[in-house]
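User: Please run a holo structure prediction.
Assistant: Happy to. Please share the sequence and the ligand.
User: Here you go; the ligand is WTA.
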Amino acid sequence: MSYPYQIKSAAQYQDAYKKSKEDPEGFWSEVAEGFYWRKKWDKVLDWNFSEPKTEWFKGAKLNITENCIDRHLEKMGDKPAIIWEPNNPEERTRVVTYNRLHKRVCQFAQVLKNNGVKKGDRVCIYMGMVPELAYAVLGCARIGAIHSVIFGGFSAQSIADRLYDANAEFIVTCDGAYRGNKDIPLKSVIDDALIGNRTVKKVIVYTRTRTPVSMIKGRDVWWEDEMEHAEHQVEQEGKVTFPAEEMDAEDPLFILYTSGSTGKPKGVVHSCAGYMVYTAYSFVNVFQYEPGDIHFCTADIGWITGHSYILYGPLAAGATTMMFEGIPTWPDAGRFWDIIDKYKVNILYTAPTAIRSLMGFGLGHVHGHKLDSLKVLGTVGEPINQEAWNWYDENIGKGKCPIVDTWWQTETGGILISNMAGITPAKATYATLPLPGVDPMLVDENGKEIEGNNVSGNLCIRHPWPSIIRTTYGDHERCRLNYFSAYPELYFTGDGAYRDEEGNYRITGRVDDVLNVSGHRLGTAEVENAINMHAGVVESAVVGYPHDIKGQGVYAYVIFEHVHGDENLTRQDILQTVTRVIGPIAKPDKIQFVPGLPKTRSGKIMRRILRKIAEGEMENLGDTSTLLDPGVVDEIKKGKL
Ligand code: WTA
């Protein structure tokens, strides 16, 4: 298989970019010719950013799983689609060919049908990184059910909120998940999430760890039993079929919850056709994937990176994608390098936080590995610092692998700003240039465009690309307010950026109240809400501070009624509450008890001051004269952790 839309030189990139700007509809309809459509579109694009409304490939009919699986079967049925590496390196690995993937997805689609799931129903998926997670996601897509994958680090309460928001009737989970030396009891978390829930009708449970689980009659069913039954239904005379549901281009494909500046996570909705075209296009071009290459994206499928660049993008391109169940530091910090040598991985796509953490373990874990199969390295999720970039380049890429620094978001569906490996130049710490079809601009506080080079501003995008967010589930106005209202007629990313003399973009970080902790997004308001639920907490304010490994750490200032006994135990109590309300990923790194918070006379918390103190900047706090009680700042400075 070759990719008609693959860019092969810097000149071709320039041409493609120019064409995409002059004639976006012509450009994307040409790219879309490289996919399988039951019926082609009537209109390439219909849009306005004021509602907002974005409809790509309007009138087209398709099923994304026919593009990700069926169309590859004839020529590549025996080729590996997914290579799975278990948490425990001693356990047997699994290679899932396209034929096998087809069979399993058909079977699971039949299981969903047997359990009453219909097109448009919401199915929540809470599983570890096992191939069955891929079958569950693609099985939903095959029958047109909307999947909502929830990362394993979220608590029962977070799951309950998401089930409620999406009005989900079905759950797919595992008894437990292996991560390093831990065994995480997923089904038991689901059971807690379901206390008081009235919408969920069925829970399908895959056995991974054989942890004892409660199975409620009439509600909970075993994956294995259901799959066995379905096998007889989908297989006749050795031939497997399960007709894919015919979807409209704009039918929703999935919901993925993400944090914003308000206390409540938003359900970002992506639709079928645009998401498919853009993830495959960006996958092939950014990583310069060649047929036969092995692509290893280390993200979890619970995040957008896993959706777009472990599953949909690579599979739509007929690629071989790795799925790793474990963590980079177990059994030791050489695990990624073991995997790369074992499978001869060609493309490694990971997060700066993982690189920094592995750097910390020293080169001893890298030595003894060949790593000579690697052709391309990538990073995602947060800005990469020069030191980590150099380490990655020298020790992993051996100075011969281009590094792509890919900037994008849950809401953008795919990579928007990045160099293309070996095609357009890399520049350390810069995401560099927009992909064809992406029209970024910088604006000032008042929404006025900042033109020219060597300038900084808030990063906005002018024109829709195919995988732009369509809505926030159940609340379209929230989508408009969050992304399309700060600057009229523009998509606002929430990030700040710098543009150099060659037009390269460097992402400088969030300009809103969103933190990026180990590449995970957390809303400060969300963490504050969780802390405030703890008995005895009067008020709290959460800010980020620079953290060597996590990128940003979470610093919480907490007013407590009166601390009983040991302050450290009270801190532990608060951490427990945050773990219950959101999950372990949101635990603050530092909790400082304070007598008050710096507030303006109108009662607004001056976060700027708190941020500076958390960063260790004790002088130059700026103007504090408008504070209600300037004395509180000195108290806070004294107690800094
Ligand atoms: C940040 C992850 C700098 C950014 C795909 C964005 C980055 C947020 C980069 C989205 C990068 C992502 N350089 N910052 N290459 N990639 N970010 O939704 O602040 O989990 O807004 O999507 O991560 O995080 P999300």
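The chain has three domains: 1-63+271-443+455-491, 90-245, 514-638.
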